Amino acid sequence: LIPEGTKLLGARVANKTATLNFSESFSFNKYGVQGYLGQLMQIVYTATEYSTVNSVQILIDGQKKEYLSEGVWIGSPLSRSSF
Questions:
Q1: What is the pLDDT of residue 39?
Q2: Distance between CA 53 and CA 48 in Å, rounded?
Q3: Which pLDDT tens digit goes with each residue over 25-71?
Q4: For strand 55-60 and strand 8-14, is the pairing parallel, antiparallel, or unpaired?
Q5: How far apart are CA 29 and CA 36, in angstroms?
Q6: For the purposes of burial, counting CB atoms within 10 Å of the CB of 7, is it exposed (0-12), middle (13-18) or buried (19 or more)?
Q7: Which helix or strand (DSSP H or E) is residue 67 part of?
């Protein structure tokens, strides 16, 4: 469900939080709210497979945003329990 054209611009892990920086394309999911939730779940569940990661902070073009479109929260680190 990750939107076509999305690029991972950077990644780092500190204090068990992975910070993943995606290109602007990540902000546009043609499937609406369920699509946004699905793409976030894919990212969070994949990243938290590693024992060094408990949560994921999403950045868009290096910027921390509070929401993706449709009011989907990304303003703080997300964990599996976020879903």
A1: 96
A2: 5
A3: 999 999 999 999 999 999 999 999 999 999 999 999 999 999 998 78
A4: unpaired
A5: 6
A6: exposed
A7: strand 67-68
pLDDT at residue 69, as a whole number: 81
| Average pLDDT value for residue range 16-32 | 95
Distance in angstroms (rounded) separating the CA atoms of residues 58 and 76: 8
CA distances from 77 to 4, 13, 20, 30, 40 (A): 23, 12, 10, 24, 11
Are 21 and 52 in contact by the 8 Å Cβ rule? The answer is: no
pLDDT of residue 6: 97
**Residue 29: closest CA among 45, 18, 40:** 40
CA–CA gap between residue 80 and residue 63 (Å, rounded):
22
